[in-house]
Each structure stands twice: as C-alpha cells, then as structure tokens.
Batch of 2 targets.
Target 1
Amino acid sequence: QQQVKQSPQSLIVQKGGISIINCAYENTAFDYFPWYQQFPGKGPALLIAIRPDVSEKKEGRFTISFNKSAKQFSLHIMDSQPGDSATYFCAAKLSGGSNYKLTFGKGTLLTVNP
Amino acid sequence: NAGVTQTPKFQVLKTGQSMTLQCAQDMNHEYMSWYRQDPGMGLRLIHYSVGAGITDQGEVPNGYNVSRSTTEDFPLRLLSAAPSQTSVYFCASSYSGELFFGEGSRLTVL
C-alpha cells in the first residue's frame, strides 16, 4: 500500500522555467511533509518541509504548496537551473513521539536543460 | 564532523553469503534507520531504532536483522543474501525530524 503518491516520474524543464512536482497522501495522521533532494551517488538531503497548519512555505527559489482538504502538496522550483537536476522525493511522517520514520514517494528525476 | 558514515560503499556477494553493513553517526541522534533504494520504488524503510536497545521493523524487514547497542552505531545484517537484496542501502539518523543520510552502500548479490 503506497501511502504517498508522487508524480511525475520524470520531468524535463528548460533553464529558467518552473518545475512542479506533485504528491498526494491518504493518511490524515501525517503531520510533517518534507522534500528531499538527491544527487547521483549521494544520499538524500532535506530541501524544504512544511506542516499542515500552513498552506505555503518558500525558501529561495523553492516553494511548497499544501492543500490539506485535498490531501495534496507540491514542490515548485522557480527559475530552474541545471544545478537543480536531481531526484526529488516527497515524504510524510505520522504525528506523535520521537519516531521520525518517513514514508517516501517514489521520486521524480528532474533534468534542467541549459 | 562526519555526520552519518556508511561502510562499505560497494560490496558484491554470492547468494547465501552473509554480511553486515555498518552505520555510525557522531551527532548523538537517538533515532536511526535503514532504507533501501531501488529504481522506481523510492526509499523503503527496512528497520529503525528510537534509541539504544530499541529496534523495530519498517516496511520491508524480511531478510534483514538489526541491533542497537550504542547510540552511535546501527549495523544492518544480511544473514543469507538473495539476489532480491541487490540495492542501494542508506542509513539515516535524526534528532528533530530532519533525516540525515549517509552516502549509501551499493550491494550486488549474484
């Protein structure tokens, strides 16, 4: 049972364009929604995260939009650069305690052409 | 400050062999976990630990054992390797929700 569904599987964007990656979840007990960025040969690293009490969070060129009623959240990369080419994973965490286990989406391979 | 260190980075095993993937963190994080990454499957949780002496199963625990005798170390053991365990394995630790990942261990089982 996949609890976090991510789309698209791959995405090609021209330099300067907007990259949009979408995720949907089913479990309303999730209370933390991070996005991780992974470069080839490296481990994933936290990019940006949001909690369900806000609808949007922006850090530089990266923005998370969150729709609690639709149980969806998305990552927007403005002015996409070739250096943004990587695999992006959305994730979700159940509320409560010190258990930080994340459920990940299947990932999106982003290619930004120069 | 090394963060999360995984060894080995690459390993080739024959079916039925056993091995241990090592993971060490120097951030004094209580939470540690192991994920496997397969093409098109994302990151799937194998086992996790919320502190020394406490471990629990994740989404795909079969064929793997873990133990947590110290805060720093969280080894992952394959008792009898199978080709289905060919994957890239990531160890991660956390204090406040953000997972810090190692650089991965690529395992091939022939």
Target 2
Amino acid sequence: AQSVTQLDSQVPVFEEAPVELRCNYSSSVSVYLFWYVQYPNQGLQLLLKYLSGSTLVESINGFEAEFNKSQTSFHLRKPSVHISDTAEYFCAVSSGAGSYQLTFGKGTKLSVIP
Amino acid sequence: EAGVVQSPRYKIIEKKQPVAFWCNPISGHNTLYWYLQNLGQGPELLIRYENEEAVDDSQLPKDRFSAERLKGVDSTLKIQPAELGDSAVYLCASSLGSYEQFFGPGTRLTVL
C-alpha cells in the first residue's frame, strides 16, 4: 500500500518570499509523483510530475520539486510567490507504469499575504 | 481541447432524496474516474472505468451509490438515498493510459 503525508495543512507566506511545501510518501515499489493545485471552487490541475530521469522537475509558473528517493520526499518549492499562487496544493503518488491508482495527501493551503 | 466537463456544479438536496452527477471526459480518454473529496481532505477514488467496464469499484458504497458509463464515454454517478455525510465534492477525471489524470471542476453536493 502507498501513502502520502503532507506535513503542513496551512502555510502563510508573504508575497515575493520563498516557500516550500513538504511531501513525504511511502511505497514498496518505484513511484510516479505529482503535485496538483486546486484554486477555490475549481478542480485539480496538474502542476508538475516526476516519472523518471532528472530528479528536479519544474512547472511553467516557477514551481519546482525534487524527488529524493533516500528520504522518500517530493517537496515543492518556489523562490518568490505571488498573490495568484494562493490555492491548495496536493501531493500524489502512483505505483509507476501501468498503475492507475493515485493516492493523494490531505493538501496544503498556501496563503500569500500582500 | 475541451477539458473534463461536469454538471451540475452545485447541488443542494434534502436527505433521503436521490441525486445524480454527470461527467463528460476528454475526447479519446478511455479511462474515467470518480473521486470523492471531503472538506480538508485529498480526493479518494470511488470507481474507475476502462471504456464501459468498471474495473475498480472497491471503494464505492454499493448500498446507495451506483455508476454507469454507457458507450464508454459519458458517465453518471448516482446516490440514492442521500445522507448527511454524503456532503462533499465529487470529482470526475479522465486519462489516456495510466499516468496522468485530468480533473473536472467537480460537483459540490450539500445534503440538508
């Protein structure tokens, strides 16, 4: 069985400050890892994903996440946040190729303070 | 390309009433998922379809929940009768292959 732990339920941060949203997973097999973002009253949008290859993955809007196999982590970072980044962020894991089961964490609410 | 479409976006009903949610996946996506998202929680899978076949419905409460995907395209999720604890957001997602799921906006259900 696989599981995801998002260590912070809420993260307030001032605009233009850096932020890190933490995610740890457990799985007995190789994994695919995802970060989804959910804006108020909207569905989930894929932010970035790790499938294989480089352990550092980036999104088009400045977020990045690093897959750390030894620490079973996939933390999300952004060097300078904007008001528009205010949303809920979900980390998710699947058991690699051929697996359709996506297990989500409980989410982290990022609040950017002007 | 149109995304996953869900309707209605919001639904308010009284307990013991029936309710149905509709989902139209991204064109060509053969895999369709229904998720339940409780307040303050991540989505949890209810059922997965491969074309018109339900291949994983182990988490679907079959005493009151049912789903169908006729012709392997649109899907309907039904609750009958609804209970207070069913208040949540019901998300539909679709994928082509196994690794990237695309989500709809969800239906927010309130049971009074």
